[in-house]
Design goal:
The chain is an all-alpha fold and about 425 residues long. It is built from 21 helices and no strands.
Length: about 425
């Protein structure tokens, strides 16, 4: 065996040193300040590139761990070009089935998740398709089928997420059902409950609030149990279980609002705010405040709804901007509606127009349909029937494959295009609350 040179030992030691630092940084991910990470990210990235390009002689298996940690840190602190380069190189190695990547499909799914969070849905889908091809090939040639079914469950969940962002309710539901079945084959109850939770969300988004409440209550109960499940803890997935308990509470609160059960919705939102105090999350706060704004509207308090939705909007802008935030159109549309109900028509129209201009394929289509409905109502009340009719047509186009309650409301507006009656702002308020 050739003797390792002093330079090689130095490079290997430097890589191991930074690997430990990265691991420690991920362990306290949300307790650090961005500026402290910024001072180290260049060193971490340089070491990664030298190791990947074989300038540094390191174990390739450690390179995968290093790259995954670096990508996660870089994305969390908005060093997106660094994260993109890392995940692109890992994905390339996974596609080439390089020996040091033992589970290439998992790497591709992780890379696709990053692309999806950066609103690059086409590249995310390409990653997922590559992962599906690898997993289906492996399923035919290996006896470790349980793990592969687990990966397929995760993959189809991510594909369903893409369909949901794009506003295709049918494809979302069928892909989630596939995820649920794959998780059952993998004996992955946590994955199964996650798939069922989102299936229930699709139900209230499509106007089936009553059944959604029943399904979400069952999922939440089981998820709460899984947080303390020994098997889940051994697999290191109790953090994921806790996160989905919080998600399920948010969705259940939304489903209660959609079902008209304001008392239960208020109780669930209270629990959700308690969660936020324990584990703050800007995204979670924005969502919880938006649901609370809908509840205030349902309770007949547009002024309190306006306060809540303004806070939701501020939380989104703390995280980035409206153009890159999922469901941003929902926050902006509700802001428009509260302004309209309180008589600020110009502000309402401005919000509705802004909501309609956001990227539709970030789960914005249902809210954009409601914003177009708001524009149609305001135009009709001003006597501008051609503009009202055009707005209705635009709204119907964006909810062609999703949002049955929104579509039904727009069709009712269409039927009353030339009358002085028909749906008004109070009717829009009801559908905003009842459509999730």
């Amino acid at each position: 065996m050739a003797k390792e040179s002093p330079q090689a030992r130095l490079h290997s030691g430097l890589f191991d040193f930074y690997l430990k630092k990265l691991d420690a940084a991920v362990a306290v991910l949300h307790q650090q300040k961005t500026e402290s990470v910024a001072k180290r990210i260049d060193m971490w990235e340089s070491t990664w590139n030298n190791a990947y390009d074989r300038v540094f002689d390191v174990r390739r298996e450690d390179l995968l761990t290093y790259g995954t940690l670096l990508g996660r840190i870089a994305e969390t602190y908005s060093f997106h070009p660094v994260a993109e380069e890392v995940f692109d190189r890992l994905a390339e190695s996974a596609i080439n089935r390089e020996h040091w990547i033992s589970h290439p499909a998992s790497v591709l799914i992780t890379a696709g998740e990053f692309n999806r969070r950066r609103a690059n849905l086409d590249l995310a889908e390409k990653r997922y398709q590559e992962a599906a091809r690898i997993l289906e090939d492996d399923l035919a040639t290996t006896e470790c089928r349980q793990r592969i079914h687990g990966d397929l469950g995760r993959l189809f969940y991510e594909l369903a997420y893409l369909h949901r962002l794009r506003g295709n309710a049918g494809a979302t539901r069928s892909t989630l059902e596939r995820s649920e079945a794959e998780c059952e084959l993998a004996e992955d109850e946590l994955g199964t409950q996650i798939a069922r939770s989102v299936l229930a969300v699709v139900s209230y988004e499509e106007g089936l609030a009553g059944s959604s409440v029943t399904e979400l209550k069952a999922c939440l109960s089981r998820l709460e149990q899984l947080v303390d499940d020994p098997g889940v803890k051994r697999a290191g997935r109790d953090g994921l279980a806790r996160r989905w308990v919080v998600n399920a509470r948010t969705h259940l609160g939304q489903a209660y609002v959609a079902a008209g059960d304001n008392v239960s919705a208020r109780r669930m939102i209270g629990r959700r705010h308690a969660d936020e105090e324990k584990e703050p999350s800007v995204t979670g706060l924005a969502t919880a405040l938006r649901v609370e704004a809908q509840l205030y509207l349902a309770e007949g308090h547009p002024d309190l709804a306006q306060d809540a939705i303004s806070a939701s909007w501020n939380a989104i802008e703390q995280q980035g901007d409206l153009l890159s935030a999922e469901l941003a159109a929902a926050t902006v549309t509700i802001a428009g509606l509260t302004n309209a109900l309180m008589g600020s028509r110009d502000s309402a129209l401005s919000c509705f127009k802004q909501a309609c201009g956001l990227p539709p394929d970030l789960h914005n289509r249902r809210a954009q349909g409601l914003a177009w409905a708001g524009r149609a109502i305001l135009a009709r009340e001003g006597g501008d029937h051609p503009t009202s009719l055009a707005a209705v047509r635009e709204g119907l186009a964006v909810v062609q494959l999703c949002g049955a309650p929104v579509r039904a409301f727009l069709l009712e507006l269409l039927r009353n295009s030339y009358s002085t009656g028909g749906p008004n702002l109070n009717d829009l308020k009801v559908v905003v609350c009842r459509s999730g």
